[in-house]
Amino acid sequence: MLEPVKLADFFTVFFSAASVILFGASYALVFAWSRVRNRPRLMPLAYAAYVGLFVSVIVLAFAANLFNNTFWTVIVMLMLIGYLLAPHAIWYLCVGTHADELEDGHADTSAAGAAPAKIFQQR
Fold first, then answer.
1. Is residue 103 part of a domain?
2. Residue 96 burial (10 A CB sphere; 0-12, 13-18, 19+)
3. pLDDT digit string (tens) for 65-112?
4. Is 119 within the bounds of a domain?
């Protein structure tokens, strides 16, 4: 059973949860921007945002007493691993799904039907 969060830890929980959202969004956005614009120099910034996410999740887990229970410890670790690997998997899925459109050279470039990389490269 989980212990409730102590009142003294309320602000820690609040700000670390907000940091999880901000760093997670930053990681996803910078990762996508780096891949879509083909700028590998931005990838270290994406990983720096992931490190911020990692630290925020660990602080949140300690403040919310999640590491007192093996089940929640496993959930936290799976979430961290999943969020590290998910953008890579999603990128390869998108590239694989739209590979035939990119090879043809005459793909539908409307916003609804074009590959993300193709739309951004044409602008």
1. no
2. exposed
3. 889 889 999 999 999 999 999 999 999 998 888 877 766 655 554 444
4. no
